Amino acid sequence: MFNEKMYALGSKRSIIREIFEYCKTRAAKIGSDKVFDFSIGNPSVEPPKEISDTICDLIKNESAVLLHGYTSAQGDLGTREAIASDINNRFGAGVSANNIYMTCGAAASLTISLRALFNEGDECIVFAPFFTEYRVFIENAGGKVVVSVPEEKTFQINVSDFEKRITEKTRAVIINSPNNPSGVVYSEETIKAVCDVLNKKEKEYSHPIYLIADEPYRELVFDDIKVPYLMNYYNDTIVCYSYSKALSLPGERIGYIAVSPKAEDSQNVYLAICGAGRSLGYVCAPSLFQQVIKKTIGAKVDVNIYKENRDILYGALSEYGYECVQPDGAFYLFVKALEDDAYKFFEKAKQKEILVVPCDDFGVSGYVRIAYCVDKQRIVNALPAFKALAEEYKK
Ligand code: PLP
């Protein structure tokens, strides 16, 4: 016997994984240069050189027993202090090491935070389009997903729709900006309006409603766009951060949770996070990478490589007649399918060896996501196929 819910999750892959696996088989058959795989958000830019230099240095000069040993359950104190002081230098948020919990990336940050906050039947509002795994994480924590629809065309948060979705049972709200899959950065005006609503509703219901900032793409923004730091706008904020995309380290599984010191009962929320980490077996995040992060605070990937990809793809697709949402960050282009059914459009694109992701599971139908975290040449080579596809629809 086993748990049926877990079996269902394990036996049905996410659509992104499904397409990604297809791409691998197809590439083995016809050659990888002939398959235009835009399915998965795996960073294509090298990690900063400081990362490999620091790994070598640590391995050469530090005690292997300490380097590969357990840290404190919530993470190495020195690493948490370094992260806290970086957050304070950049955003003036007043956090300390006692507000930071080291994790295995944003997925762990989210699952731990949701588990720490939720009681059975609590509701969690997500803004469409949203990362598909939110549904899995929220439901696994005993919560119920409530989807708020976006503003048309801009894909900013529709604040009046959001307000209508809040009930007495709303325990948390997840904001992901820059957004996967739209690439949209929520404006400061939008964030302020969302926080005004939350403050009002907290008073009305006399309990905290937590704002969870899912931030794996915070550092991937173009043209000096600013991403508001949510702790500075709303007290009951929990930041779920990850180095997966920021430093191109998705396989190393490293990130953190930061609980705002201004949150109601902040230290007890932090202790609930420690408890959730313990109950899920997410203690002592990878030790070597905690040390790497401590010593490379401030390191950055070259975002201009993604920006160049965005400019080529956005420019060309707009010219061919595709309706694209202007992405200011992350590495995704959100494109309106050329027919109502995004799956049918996906199938037609697939015939031209273009692999994109239909976005119904992200809470918006009729759109596809193009992950442009790929070699520039793949984008350039795919453009004639995108053009031919658009022309086919015009006939
Ligand atoms: N949140 C969003 C919006 C994502 O796009 C991803 C990964 O693609 C994650 C969370 C999980 O990131 P991590 O690899 O750090 O667990």
Number of helices: 14
What hetero molecules are bound to the protein chains? pyridoxal-5'-phosphate
Q: Which strand order spans the largest sheet, edge to edge or round the barrel?
A: 2-8-7-6-5-3-4
Distance between the termini: 55 Å
In total, the number of strands is: 13
CATH homologous superfamily placement of the largest domain: Type I PLP-dependent aspartate aminotransferase-like (Major domain)
The gross shape turns out to be globular
- Number of discrete domains: 2
CATH architecture of the largest domain: 3-Layer(aba) Sandwich
Largest sheet: 7 strands, mixed
Please state roughly what percent of the residues sit in beta strands, choosing from under 5%, 5-15%, 15-25%, 25-35%, 35-45% or over 45%.
Answer: 5-15%
Helix content: 40-55%
Q: Might you state the CATH topology name of the largest domain?
A: Aspartate Aminotransferase, domain 2
List keywords for this structure.
binds pyridoxal-5'-phosphate; 395 residues; globular; 7-stranded mixed β-sheet; 13 strands; 14% strand; 4-stranded antiparallel β-sheet; Aspartate Aminotransferase, domain 1; single chain; alpha/beta; Aspartate Aminotransferase, domain 2
Written description of the protein model:
The chain is α/β, with parallel strands linked by helices. The protein has two domains: 139 residues, Aspartate Aminotransferase, domain 1, CATH 3.90.1150; 229 residues, Type I PLP-dependent aspartate aminotransferase-like (Major domain) (Aspartate Aminotransferase, domain 2), CATH 3.40.640.10. The protein is 44% helix and 14% strand. It has 14 helices and 13 strands. The strands form three sheets. A seven-stranded mixed sheet has the order 2-8-7-6-5-3-4, sandwiched between helices. A hairpin with a 6-residue loop joins strand 9 and strand 10. Helix 3 crosses helix 11 and helix 6 packs across helix 10. The longest helix is centred in the C-terminal third of the chain and has 19 residues. The N and C termini lie far apart (55 Å). The mean pLDDT is 96. The site of pyridoxal-5'-phosphate has 13 residues, from helix 6.
